[in-house]
Task: inverse folding
């Protein structure tokens, strides 16, 4: 029986990236509508303040579901598939119950939470943020179920369904925005998010029936809580994912200390910064996680090192040119994507400055997002927790130091500094724990691609000066030439990335995508 293309790391990464591009493309279109309708206005600031905690909790729950469930399920299913299925059912019920409890708790304490962020705001502003907050609370139980269903499908290498399910979320928000934003204003965003989350849950539930049958009435009990919630590994995972998601919450805390529209500018800049990570690094990590977990369970040390080195090489190859594009041409990207309606030229300038602050850490944070998964695979979550705590302390300390003078840009710089530390500490620990032989791989690959990008950009600029007079056309010509020259140089030096690309193309030709 031929191996499915999407069950290989390269194949799964490509497939997830393609579908991810479609989903993120819809997400980007959604953000373009946000920018057109709300710009950097105060109303959108209030939405971001009200939405941050529920969305952060949903993100944390998603990562908990993956990072806890996938290693546990694969470990149990390797010896007893029926026991693994029973464990899934228990986890499913537990996550829904925990999500419901969190929603109720936040609903009861919502006024206190919003007042904590907005102690100096008017009562009308606090009321708007509170209503947004309460609507988003409806999504938490469904997101909890989605996290476990997505993890189940990924353990069976059915990566496509969780990625496709994201389309429901963005489509719901876009449709409702287009037809009802004039009538309901900022509130239509959390309503669209809620509708999309429910549709996403229904889709994944249907697709999961191929692998497991759920009987919700027979799986609850005290044993469930003692095994799934109270064991030390999931508590550590909850702490890691919760702490690592505090960045947006911390930034919202400084709402009163930065210029009007500062929170929104950070949001748009971070969306652009995170876009390639969410498409490529997340795709790579999603495909990598079950594979490297399996290799570790089989004690295949050579395979582990091969996967580890390959993931680092591919990551730098993708994100070094992205770094140059965002840093030198981010203003063009922002202008083309967002500058319309209420998003003015001044908004572009403010957002671009924030983007440059974030971009310095792009290669490092994208690599960390992959290394993060390996910590869970090799049962080193305690190390990851320590790294996460150090990183968030650094973020908070530099935020207080920089926000007074540099406002939102100080918050962006503090995030970049902590992301750099995330990567450095993670890379050093994993090199030691995995006994990696080629410990200088990242530095070598970084220098090769940095040099390639520098030469390609300089050459592209010289050629563009000859071909075009100036303006946006010149910038676009430079971007195209830069990317072409970057790839051409890889071919000329016969970089191993070209070998990897040829292998992927061969898989595309000879293996069936399913």
Result:
């Amino acid at each position: 029986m031929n191996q499915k293309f999407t069950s290989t790391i390269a194949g799964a990464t490509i497939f997830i990236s393609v579908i991810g591009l479609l989903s993120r493309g819809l997400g980007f279109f959604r953000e373009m509508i946000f920018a057109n309708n709300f710009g950097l206005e105060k109303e959108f600031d209030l939405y971001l303040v009200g939405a941050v905690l529920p969305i952060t909790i949903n993100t944390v729950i998603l990562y908990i579901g993956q990072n806890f469930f996938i290693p546990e399920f694969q470990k149990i299913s390797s010896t007893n598939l029926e026991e693994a299925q029973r464990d899934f059912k228990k986890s499913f019920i537990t996550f829904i119950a925990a999500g419901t409890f969190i929603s109720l708790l936040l609903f009861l304490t919502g006024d206190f939470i919003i007042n904590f962020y907005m102690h100096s705001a008017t009562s009308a502003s606090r009321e708007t943020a509170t209503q947004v907050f309460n609507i988003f609370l409806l999504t938490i139980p469904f997101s909890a179920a989605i996290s476990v269903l997505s993890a189940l499908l990924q353990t069976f290498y059915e990566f496509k369904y969780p990625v496709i399910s994201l389309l429901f979320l963005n489509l719901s928000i876009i449709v409702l925005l287009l037809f009802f934003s004039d009538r309901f204003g900022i509130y239509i965003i959390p309503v669209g998010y809620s509708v999309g989350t429910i549709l996403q849950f229904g889709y994944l539930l249907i697709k999961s029936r191929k692998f497991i049958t759920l009987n919700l009435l027979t799986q609850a009990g005290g044993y469930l809580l003692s095994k799934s919630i109270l064991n030390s590994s999931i508590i550590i995972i909850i702490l890691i994912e919760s702490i690592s998601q505090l960045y947006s919450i911390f930034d919202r805390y400084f709402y009163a200390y930065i210029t009007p529209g500062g929170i929104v500018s950070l949001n748009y800049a971070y969306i652009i910064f995170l876009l390639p990570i969410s498409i490529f690094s997340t795709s790579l990590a999603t495909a990598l996680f079950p594979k490297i977990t399996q290799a570790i369970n089989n004690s295949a040390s050579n395979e582990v090192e091969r996967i580890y080195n390959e993931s680092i090489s591919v990551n730098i190859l993708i994100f070094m040119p992205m770094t140059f594009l965002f840093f030198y041409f981010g203003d063009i990207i922002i202008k083309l994507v967002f500058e319309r309606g209420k998003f003015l030229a001044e908004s572009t300038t403010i957002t671009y400055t924030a983007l440059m602050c974030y971009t310095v850490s792009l290669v490092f944070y994208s690599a960390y997002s992959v290394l993060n998964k390996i910590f869970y695979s090799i049962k080193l979550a305690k190390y990851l927790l320590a790294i996460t705590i150090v990183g968030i302390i650094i973020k908070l300390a530099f935020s207080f130091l920089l926000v007074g003078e540099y406002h939102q840009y100080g918050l962006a710089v503090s995030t970049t500094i902590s992301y750099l530390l995330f990567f450095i500490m993670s890379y050093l620990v994993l090199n030691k724990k995995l006994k990696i032989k080629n410990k200088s791989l990242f530095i070598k690959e970084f220098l090769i691609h940095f040099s390639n990008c520098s030469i390609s950009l300089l050459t592209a600029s010289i050629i563009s000066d000859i071909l075009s007079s100036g303006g946006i056309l010149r910038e676009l010509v430079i971007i195209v030439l830069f990317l072409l020259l970057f790839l051409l140089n890889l071919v000329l030096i016969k970089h191993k990335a070209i070998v990897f690309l040829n292998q992927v193309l061969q898989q595309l030709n000879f293996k069936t995508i399913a």
Remarks:
- Residues 216-230, 507-514 have pLDDT under 50 and may be disordered.
- The chain has one domain: 12-439.
- The radius of gyration is 23 Å.
